[in-house]
Design goal:
about 375 residues, alpha/beta
């Protein structure tokens, strides 16, 4: 069992449909980020750094790559005798024949026996598709000090964006008195981060009761939390002050990558005090050509730059050929921009080729262009 008697479950089964072609064949948590990372590296690294030894990863859609990746516990140092990352796909249900998770609460319910086998006092539930660094041990300490039944991580968002989130309305001491799912007129800006700590014995009882309800959505936000509030349970909001981003859209994924270029950003992947661990690709070093021009770029191993790169993030094995220009852009793994091509304000997917002389994207555009397929060059 974990040193702090807390077991973590990472919900990593969402379709990620708003990421369009990036998630056609890859689960959202397995999407690449920041040059060499995957999105799921963040919650798993946070667990390892927080002293949580046992982590269950609940997978579902397009999960082959994610399953094999998450099963490699050594990446996050969770491969000792008393630790591990366990991949937990949905099981066929005797009453329906379904083999899917019907909701976030159902995902945990289907794995009650797994959790019981470790007999934790506390259960930490996380989303597998957010970019952030967080010490869950500090959140647990807050939970214990408040004698809480459940603690929910929250972050302040601009009030004009609050209607996109689940909002926690609280009393003066941050005890949660009301939960509103994407309210049209939010009463405050405390948005749920999808991070929960529950006292396991209590949550277990609630889950068992929820399983029997035919009209339930089997969801924490829609079912479990409202039941707890109605029963006057002690729910507290834990205010997180650091960097956090839900990378659920092309624009937000691009923005999170671009944040790596900002010296003032709290998302520092080079900070040795809180490392984000990932599979170490055995690639050649990056190469910057004699005539290349590079300014404000985040470049990882295996990258070859012969042209101009400005305000861009270049993933492993991407390439910018001579006289090509890449600006305000994310080039994902293996993307190639051929000679004379120009790419602006775009997110170029894995392995995509931008042909010679092609022009992709537009400066000043309000949205980011996803380039998920090869672009023909001039004369092709």
């Amino acid at each position: 069992m974990a040193k702090n008697n807390m077991l973590a479950m990472v919900l990593a089964g969402g379709r990620g449909s708003r990421l369009l072609d990036l998630t056609n064949k890859v689960a959202k948590p397995a999407v690449a980020f920041g040059g060499k990372y995957k999105i799921i590296d963040f919650p798993l690294s946070n667990c390892a750094n927080s002293g949580i030894d046992i982590v269950g990863v609940l997978t579902q859609y397009e999960s082959v790559l994610l399953n094999s990746y998450a099963a490699a516990s050594r990446i996050w140092g969770l491969d000792s005798k008393d630790s591990g990352v366990f991949v937990l796909p949905p099981r066929e249900k005797a009453d329906s024949g379904l083999n899917v998770y019907r909701g976030t609460a159902d995902a945990i319910s289907q794995n009650i026996d797994f959790i019981d086998s470790y007999d934790p006092e506390y259960l930490l539930i996380l989303s597998g598709d957010h970019i952030y660094k967080m010490n869950y041990e500090e959140m647990l300490r807050y939970h214990i000090e408040n004698k809480a039944d459940a603690t929910i991580g929250v972050i302040e968002v601009p009030i004009k964006e609050a209607s996109r989130f689940g909002i926690m309305n609280t009393s003066d001491n941050d005890r949660i008195v009301e939960f509103e799912e994407k309210p049209a007129k939010p009463k405050n800006n405390l948005a749920s981060m999808g991070i929960y700590i529950f006292n396991w014995k209590l949550l277990r009882k609630l889950l068992v009761a929820d399983i029997k309800k035919k009209d339930s959505n089997h969801d924490f936000g829609k079912d479990i939390i409202p039941v707890m509030l109605a029963d006057n349970k002690m729910l507290y909001a834990y205010r997180f002050k650091g960097y956090w981003k839900d990378v659920g859209t092309i624009d937000s994924l691009w923005e999170a990558n671009m944040d790596l270029l900002d010296e003032a950003s709290e998302l520092d992947l080079a900070d040795p005090r809180w490392k984000i661990y990932t599979e170490d690709a055995t690639e050649l070093p990056q190469y910057i050509g004699e005539n290349a021009k590079v300014s404000n770029a985040y470049i990882t191993q295996g990258v070859n730059v012969e042209g101009t790169v400005e305000n861009a993030v270049l993933f492993t094995n991407s390439c910018v050929e001579e006289k090509a220009v890449v600006k305000d852009t994310v080039l994902m793994t293996g993307a190639i921009v051929e000679e004379g091509a120009k790419v602006t304000r775009a997110l170029v997917a894995d392995g995509v080729r931008i042909g010679k002389g092609a022009v992709v994207g537009k400066a000043g555009s309000d949205s980011i262009l996803l380039v998920a397929h090869d672009v023909k060059g001039k004369g092709e």
